[in-house]
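User: If only I could read backbone structure tokens as easily as an amino acid sequence. Underneath my words sits a plain record pairing an amino acid chain with its backbone structure tokens. This is the protein in question:
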Amino acid sequence: MRFSSCLCFLAVFFQALLFSEDIDETKHSPAESSDFWVSTNGSDSNSGSKHSPFRTLQRARNAVRSLPSGAFQHHDVNIYIRGGTYRLNKTLTLTSMDSGRYGHNVIWRAAPGEHPRICGSIQVTGWSVYDASLNIYRAYVGPCQSRQLYVNGRRATRAQTTPYPAGFLPSWTNGGIEFIPTSLNPVAWRDPANWTNPQDIEAVIITQWKMMRIPVSSITPYSSPNNGLIVIQEPAWTNANVYFDISTNLPGIWSFWQVTRFENAYEFLNEAGQWYLDRQTGWLYYIPLAGEDLNTANVELPVVETLIQGKGTLHSPIHNIQFKGLTFAYATWLDPSSNNGYVADQSAFTLVGSNHQPNYIGHDQHVVPSRGNLSFTYSKDILFHGNIFQHLGGVGLHFVTGCENTVVKSNLFTDISSSAIILGGVSETDAHPKHYDQTTRNNNITNNLVRSVGVEYVDAAGIFVGFSRNTRLSHNTIVNVPWSGIAMGWGWGLLDKGSYPGVSNAISGLWGTVTKLTANRGCKILKNKITDFLNVLWDGGAIYTTGRQGPSLLKGLLIKENVAYGKRVSGGGNTFYTDGGSRYIRLEGNISYNNPIGVTYFGPPPQAGDPLPYSSLPSDGNNVPYGSDTGGCIPYGDIRYKDNYWLQSPIPDNIALYNILYQALLGFPPYSSKGFFDICLFASHGVRYPIHLTYANNKTFTTVDQLPPNVLSNAGVQSRPSSIPKNLWVLPGP
């Protein structure tokens, strides 16, 4: 008995010694044998140890789920993921059963010095020439659906027509888009009656702060004297035309009044770098760029929509989970291909389903967020640190209702179709939660690099925050966004206590009687650097807000020591844009430079000789000066500006001249003596809004050398995590 006991002791001793040596190699604190390893060379029948790793992430999740609670009493549980590509064929779903325990965490992390990639795509091989005259190649991918294609890490362009094609006129009364074939368009696609797979084709409009993608249902050929008709699927067509013009009582310029382009037909393939997927036959078509060899190219077709879903509930939240050093890539989002299409209200929130009533304000009360390729609902103590989010077809990372103590730190977000991050929602539950745990609160988004997002859905903000409490956005760098860099808040005052009508043509009570404050309070936007914004749309800004931000000025929103520069020259908008209903906001120590006043743009007039011209009246409003360093449309007020630097020369002189122009055009000057741009003058019960705009110690300047160096150097990303390669962590200039 004693001898066998000694043997057992020695066996345990050597096992412990061996395991401690393994952990020493990871350079992490000692952990117990409840840690697991995953490798592309592993097997799910293995034990999950370092020397006998699992093959799949699902197997590792199940192993952690099966651990006794005691495994968490003194240690975190790590899932070490070796380098390589892990292709998911379905979403990795995590629930409360997959959470940490006793205050310790489940950590999904890259193995030391390695770079694992979690993907939702299939690799495409077997290319052959299909049409030599156009250099079109094709490969068989079978029955699948996707909205993106990547060749050697570059996003390919979906087959599309030229911008603003001639001979197409959206018609509300006929329920679609009328057309007349014309020689102004290329022969390959000038007659829609010849388009293949019409139900996969989308009509696109991009205008002001909105965009829409609506799917075709059928095509009635042109036969003189009757125009052809492109019938649009429902409810997309109705939803795309709910924004009425108050003067005509018909769909107006925020509805689908003009075709920016059509997408996704074989006939549209005409340029190198374009692709088309025929879902009916399973063939993928592509025109390679010069120098691309499809025999050796890495071609990725995303087919999975959500890579990781954290699925908590109000009474059983998901919690204490961390992700470190991982790359999430190649996921799609298919909802815009449904009969709902993509009908944007604002900032990646869309109209879905029926029963949306016509309105005159350009916004709908009931909207849904875009899908997150990583998504968490009712979560607590979730950390993302040092990860890469790239080549994604929806929102990169989405935290929905009831998220608490989230930390998103030192990650790279690049080449994403929608927003990099959405935090919190805009529903009635988010605005006025009945249960405290429905409140999105105490979350921190810091030191991230957000670059080239909103690629496909250009109305999306770089980072969007809905109704929330004590959110902190700090030291992020946001570069190259089509609309606003950061957008915070929702409702334009209509969801705030008292229902302030903070949008044109609204009236108090339009969205119901509101008797209590929203969840907003105590949020901070600090030391972020935002550049190259409004790169596609106009009527946005570097930092955009709407609605009441707290119960008082001191408990409201603080926007401090942010640096914004390099706006698209023609992009009309306000650098710091306190829009409809914005209230209780302090702007302190911010810097705006190289952000000249832009202009309005509603699209070009019809081409000369267009046989079916749309109205040229909207384009008559083009090129009107629009925006300043600060401004908004019907903000409430209670906004304080202190110690900011802006209005660099020659903007003050321009403001004076533009006021003369607006006085002649509209009968009122929109620029205040302080440079605040208020295009929507509003008064109610003898009070003119905005009220209580206060200014203290703000300065103008003419060169960057006059700016405080500490503010410039402290703004934006401060450090690159070792898990992200230097060549990807490329920051903009000063």
Notes: Residues 488 and 540 are 12 Å apart (CA to CA). The chain has three domains: 1-30, 124-286, 299-603+625-714.
